[in-house]
Automatic annotation (TrEMBL):
Primary enzyme class: transferase
Keyword vocabulary terms for this entry: Nucleotidyltransferase, Transferase
Highest taxon of the lineage: Bacteria
NCBIfam families documented for this protein: holB, PRK08058.1
Protein name, as recorded: DNA polymerase III subunit delta
Source organism per UniProt: Bacillus salitolerans
Amino acid sequence: MSRTWDEFAIRQPIVIKMLTNSLKKDRVAHAYLFEGEKGTGKLECAKLLAKTLYCKDLADDYNPCHSCINCRRIDSGNHPDVHVIEPDGQSIKKQQIQHLQEEFSKTGVESKRKFYMINHSDKMTANASNSLLKFLEEPNSQTTAILMTEQQNQMLDTIISRCQTLSFKALPKAAFAKQLIEMGIKPILAQLIAQLTNSLEQAKILAEEEWFAEARKVVLQLCEVLNSKSQQSFFFIQEKWTSQFGDREQVEIGLELLLVYYRDLLSVLIGDEQTVVFSDQIDQLKQRALQLSQMRVMEDMTAILEAKKRLSANVQSQLLMEQLVLKLQEGS
């Protein structure tokens, strides 16, 4: 987690410049919409802003200390004047917004300032959205709202128009990989992790997990089996793949890694070897590329993407993988 605005600016320079300028001039807007892909730091930024507004020992006018009682309570979710709303099940319901309004109708427990964050705000029901709209139409000068979404197009235009929209951009994959390497993550892992996530926190978790390093090996082993054109691929799925990739989230990561391998094959075929992610497999990739056409690799990538869609539709994962390896071997 970024502890200063300058650290966060490495990832989101435009957003942070706008927010820090507002802080320096004491012109924080009453409502912001943080929109952008998953893992771009929206909630982390919202909490950093909350800490800045409530910190008892600010450094250089706008960096929170992270150690005073207010900073610690915001970290733990226990500050009485800072509220976070998350979806209750699949949606944010009207009752949740009404409860927030009731809380805000009371005098601030420790100050007049109130701060609330609504994560996945695109998941508000129609009634919840209308309740929030009324809340936004009558802003209190001491109230700050942060709405966060990965799906801005799913939100009411009337709500968006009452917020200052800040767009969070994913770091280019090469730049993110470089950042991970500078943090001490091995280059081979860093390049691969950067293909899977924009989240620094998730990247750290993957880098530290033995499971992920083993997952990489299993995917490469599957590719070797597929390349050999043997009938061992089904046994491999039953014995090795299913034991490594147990739940749906793990299977999705496995499919993503497989997709990266086939993208690397395509990169080799078109002479773009500098973009290869499995860089330690370059010789094997070159050898395999001699046996394939660009059209064949693109068809295989389409099959993997289709498998990812079917996984989201609750298809049984072992059956899905058996059907996928059959398709990948058909044209080999």
